[in-house]
Each structure stands twice: as C-alpha cells, then as structure tokens.
Amino acid sequence: MLSASIYFADIGANWEISGSPLTAGQSGIEIFRSSQLSWSTRKFDTGWLLWIGEVPDPFEQTDVAKLPEACRNFDAAEGIYLIFREAGQLVEMVRTCAGNCPIYLARGRERFIATWRFEEAVSALDRAVPDVLMCQRYIADGMNQVRDQIIAGVQMLWPAERALVREASIEFEQMPSPLAVMSAQFADRAVATEEFLRLVAEAMSENVARANGALVELSGGLDSSCVAFAAALLECPLNSCGVIHTGPVGAQQSGRRNEIVELCRLRDFTYPAAKDLTYQSLALPGFGITPFDEMYRLQCSNLLEVVRNEIPELDLVLTGMGGDELVKDNALYRAEYEVAGYTSSSAVVAAACRSDLFMRLGIWPKSPLISKPVVDFCRALPGKIREDRQIHKLALVRAGVSDAFLFPRYYEHFGYVSDLSARNFDFDDYFSTSAIHDWRIYDIDAVLHKAREATLYGFTPELRTTLFFLCKLEAVLRSYV
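RESULT FIELD:
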C-alpha cells in the first residue's frame, strides 16, 4: 500500500501533501499507484493523519482518540492510518481487519521505514544480520504469520494490528482475540450456496467496479472456480489466467477450466507449468528479494506478462487464496508463536505472498475468500456442508458445472514441476558457499546427503519442500548479509 521513509526529525515538520509522494525534509511517503486505492489527509489538534485504503476514509468524522479501535474492527476494505503526533515524535500505524498486502517495519539511521517491499525495510538497518531462530522456523515451517522476520530488526504489521513508532522503539498491539462464530443448523428451505457466492461477490464488488482491467486467477480448482462464478455475478468484463499442467493431467485441467471460462464468459490466458524450473529461478534478478513469496513465481510472473501484453490496463487480480481454510474444523488455527488473526494464518500468509508477486507488476491483488464476512459465514455452516468442501461443490453444481468437473480422474498438483526442477538442480554447487552454513542456522550437509540419494530413489514432497525453503532462504540472505 505504501513505501514510507520517515525521519524522526521530520515528524512534526510541515509536510507537502498535495500529491504522492508526500514529503517533508528528507522524508517521503509513496502510495502504491492503483485505481484500487484512495488516500486523504486531515489535521487534528496535535498532529495530522494519512489514510490509504480501498475505500475513502471510512472514519472521516470519527474522533482521533476513537479511530484506532474503529479501524481495527473495520472489515469492509483493506486500509491503514498513519497518525502523526507532533508531541513526542510519534507515528501511530493502524491497519483494518481486512488485508492482503504485507507491511514491513524497520527502524535505524534516525528514521523508520514502513513498506510492502522487503528490501526497503532492510535498507533502514545499520547492518543486516539473520535472525537465526526465525530462519530456522522458516526452514522447518515455511512462511508464517509472525512478527519478527528472517533479517533481525525487520518486523511485520499484520491486519487489525497497531504499531507505535518512536525513535527508541516500535511497540505492537496484536489483533484482539476474535470471537469465533459457531456452527449452526439450516433454517427450512435455506440455500447456503447462493448466499456463499453472493458474499464472495460482495467482498470484491467495489474492486471490480473500479478496475480498468480485472483478472481471475483460475487454476480450475474449487476455490478459484467459486471466485470466478462469484465475479461473474457482478456482470462486469472479466479475464482469467492459469498455469497449465503437462500430459493427461493438463488435458483434464484444460477441460475443467474451459467449463468455467465458457459459463462465466471469460477471456482466458494460459502458460505451461513445466516451461520454467522452480529452483533455477532463484538465481534470476528479483527472485531472492523477499522470503514471503510464491513457489512458482516465475511461471506466474511470465503468465502475467502474457496477459499484460494483451491487456495493458490490467490493474486487479482476483485470487482463490484462503478457500481451503474456510472449511477447516479449526478455522483459527495458527502455531503458538504466530500472532492473532480472524482466520487461519495459512490463508493470511498465502495472500501476503501473492501480493508481492502482483504488486511488483503494478497489479492490486484481492483475495475475497479471506474476507471476514465470508470466513464467518462458512464457520456458521453446519458441519456436514463443510465436510469434503461440500459448500464449494454444491455452489459449483448450482452454477452449472458437469459431474466430470467435480469428480476428475487425476489429482491436479504442481509437485511434479518442483520434482523436475530438483532433479535438474545441483544442490551441492548451490550450497558450496552458504550464508546458512556460515551463520550456523542449519545442518546443510545432512540435507545435501538426502538430495544426492533422491537423484536415485526420488524426491519426497517433504524433501522438496525443505530444499525449496533452504534455497529460498539462502537466496534472500545472500542479497542482504
């Protein structure tokens, strides 16, 4: 949403606020350029504030003292307030409950940085060094909804959180523990599937209406297909894109996707999944910048370039992130070291990872399946309709898909792309010099031994995952330390 470099000496200065970037002295606040974002400023007795969000300032008439609580409970749109309090050189940052965009904070060199770009946050530090514990968790568990990041001194401000930034410290307030909606029973003649798609459509309706060019990420799975049908309810021109498997699985995927494309009247674009290799892409410029990333970033990035060549005005992508988590028994699940949130941390993290990919191409991402009204509605459903993702399947049946769509012969999964990449990658050479080894973060030799054996016996999904996060962490650390 923003890239801000703010010197503490400039907090109480007269800011130039006529356009982006907002400036004062050496400080600047650049707002992500998108048809999807609005911003405004206003003054109050002891300072001024900046709002950036998907809607105009929703609390324009609210007293500043009550604004943080109101903002943190607001779930209709993604947004953030920066409240400049001239007394005490304090900046208060508050996020709404809704959110896809990562916001990193870091403090140093007489300033602090708040940004969606990881590399900008690292630049605030006097010296970049790994946070060994967070690096070890990254290798073991992948990306998580955590405060401290893999570079010591870089922290994340998550949705519905508050941060008080001073020269000496940054204090965080987590999202208050949410009240979990309990499962209920249907009333007579209830049609949950219709309401499900309506709520998904409502979560993205204003975004689609504002868009110059809207794109649905359509894998052909249940989640993205539901998003496509919900978007079609809005009766606006829509496009779709998908990374396509090889062989008979790809033929099946293409057939299933074509059903959705035809029923929703989408203009569709595709890209072959096996054309680019996962591990090899980490050596490319821009692929070792952020730890919050998409495993198949290169394929997705190349697909988006294909779309942009045909639709240069493209400025909005709709994803199916968070669909699996809607029907989990424990929809609030998170590891004990993760911060609080209103839905499963894996859904929030997946949306944040996708955001970096899209925003670097100037495209605003929207993940309607992680909107709180959708999450709460699915929590309230009877257990039987959540089992085996029946709510998704029944919604698609009502929308008109075939039986073959719902009961495919093959399991469509991108693991084979990772396996192909692993079989063609020299892990020994890649780790011949290693920041992970030098900082004693992980026993590289043990996993390299398993990788050598795997060239004969095959790479298990668990080994491929460990190797990816090791390689990704190594690429990021080499960029900074």
